[in-house]
């Protein structure tokens, strides 16, 4: 029989819940202990205590206490709800959903449990269950618009667009009062409904709905863009032209509007004069628009191109626009344009020298800008001549020795020459020219990492990290999810032979993507509460393809390749630092790694001391934060001591193959892992995918030979069905 609390204890129990919700864990724990002193078998209080302990990082103790609470009061919906929350925080979503459903059986009217269940269902992409949960929530509180919208979203995600539209229409008909013009939620709901109609392929009806129902929507730009798109799709060219011209008037630097305008005017690629007339019209109308001047360079040819390019370059050089080369380098796929642009820059320099005009006080304009352009031109991989590039950048630096852009380009030239040490030094000199610029600071740190100067790079970045962060610059960079740094740092440690720290960095990147996945939890309810429906749908679709991100691909590929080398040469790697286990060379490397580790710890300690001096009152708070954030393997030693490197590699490999199947490097890595794990069908699948992507790739041909040799040796020992498939593949 469950224990019953007195009125005073019931009030204290409510205080425990408030303390937990407001993250006052010590106070909550103290209040729970008071209740349990008199009622040691009160299941609900035991559950709340377990929840607080879990928030303090005592996961195992929390689970044990929650199980005890269930034994004491098996029919308490609070105990089952808390049990589900514990599983959810520990990412066991399947068990969490089971616990929530059991709690809901015991307390069917609980909106909190129903909401938690619904959020977990959409998080795990159980759309069928999500529809049922949202329908139950709508039945319980039909007066709330967000419940109707949430059910429509559930049907939309499940793929039932007609039902999603019907739900939204039903709510609109049920409302008698006219929504206010400033009603943001109504505006977003109307545009969301319009997107559902368009997604069904009913463009005509979508346009009609847009013009009738959405004309007063607050997002005017979205309405204008959708209308133009629908008109173009329906072939109503004249109206579409008017719509795109209105959009250009609104934003004359939006390149896509110009392209769409050319399309609806039915201008062919050969009709250069007609296309140019449009851009001339807008360059005259909006003299400050860059797009109207730059876009014609994409389609103009011959003398027309030369004339337009000369006018554009002259304007850009006179203004001293640093991004001029970046704006034009896509034209280098055309050999004529690639040769014309530098010759025009040379002509400009000659004209400047021949003119008697007074030199500009700003050396980044005029001659300096032209020299900078030529230095970038000869440094670019499609037109590379590094000797000339260095010559031009030196001339530019003579004009303006304090230009960060010129000095950065010089560093890039050294990098392309293969002199990484000199490049890192030059980039650091560029940084010293403007110590308040975060971009050049990160560039200098990146080059130092490429030169395997991990400690120096961390100190450089430490100039811009928060001094008060416990753990120093590295901890702050991890908090800020600086994945470019973690990947570069991992690769540098890998080159230096420190397997442990390299793996630690790659796993940190992996964990950041897990955090991004979990961050959805907050938005499932927030987006509905704020009416941000279209943005929410975009987020869901983006999250579904999260690990397509290049940052993930690069770190995952590095990790897989490192695990492969650990598997191939286990005797040649030391768990702590990845160095050769024998000989004087190994001792030297081990000594160097130990020194590097000490220097990194020293830098972090100095940063923590600086923070303590700046704000000594935060010392206690920092100690608590340090306990909470404590990492039991800060240097990756446990990761490097793995007994199953191929099994660990699979953690990185599976998402890599799932979300980036068209990247040949990923398929090659997949083959290498699977062939070693003796998963011959999966290895064959990766090989086949790689052959489709690039059958002439030298590595692909090498893998094919490896596969044939391996299969030839083991074919007879494989199951008959596997033999049959492999024989068919190699036939």
Automatic annotation (TrEMBL):
Claim: Coiled coil is one of the keywords in the record: yes
InterPro entries assigned to the protein according to its UniProt record, in alphabetical order: NatA_aux_su, TPR-like_helical_dom_sf, TPR_rpt
Amino acid composition bias (Basic and acidic residues), ranges on this chain: 598-612, 619-643
Coiled-coil intervals: 154-227
Keywords: Coiled coil, Receptor, Repeat, TPR repeat
TPR repeat residue intervals: 77-110, 370-403
SUPFAM superfamilies registered for this protein in UniProt: TPR-like (SSF48452)
UniProt region (Disordered), positions on chain: 575-643
Pfam families membership: NatA_aux_su, TPR_16
Cellular component aspect of the GO annotation: NatA complex
PANTHER family (UniProt xref): N(ALPHA)-ACETYLTRANSFERASE 15_16, ISOFORM A, N-TERMINAL ACETYLTRANSFERASE-RELATED
Protein's recorded name: NMDA receptor-regulated protein 1
Lineage: Eukaryota, Fungi, Dikarya, Ascomycota, Pezizomycotina
